[in-house]
Amino acid sequence: MIIKAASDVDYTSLSEPITFSAFLPLKGSAVVGNFGDHRSYFLGKKQISKSMHLGLDIASVSHAPIIATNPGEVVFTELLGVYGNTTIIYHGFGLASLYSHMSRFDVKPGEEIAAGTIIGLTGQTGWAFGDHLHLGILVQGHPVRDVEWMDPKWIKANITDVFLKAKNTIEGLDDQNQTEKY
Known about the structure:
Blueprint: H1 2-7, E1 30-33, E2 38-43, E3 46-52, E4 56-59, E5 65-68, E6 72-79, E7 85-92, E8 95-100, E9 104-105, E10 112-113, E11 117-121, E12 133-139, E13 142-144, H2 146-149, H3 152-170
Antiparallel strand pairs: 1-4, 2-3, 4-12, 5-11, 6-7, 6-10, 7-8, 8-12, 9-11, 12-13
């Protein structure tokens, strides 16, 4: 469901300029679980499952407002198994953000939102051991390391500058004579 929601989008509505801000959805938060953590689950003393964590768990205060730091289209707001109440926002160019364990939804599918929009509140729905936010960054529907997308220098060097160079190459502009900047 996550891959479908994050990749089944209308690519004809993409706009310029191509910019992304760092994904920083909770003010005053701390990391409580990292991308790639190996997790084991027990029933009594017997291990019943294990998995790799495909997001970043961050927490601040109970029922903290979750802020969309990039504009986009809300493509999913539903209860999603272990993720609990989940919102997915599509930002264009194959990039989506996923917000899970929410206690409240403040947006609906199909809604275009601006950067700075409060999309809901943190919670502990699904398989959550305390109030927090599970943040996932998805590229073409697949989870990628969140921490890079939370770094404005990484985004500039690896995303926006790459898009600008590709655009200038396509338009026949060289690096020395760029007439357009994003």
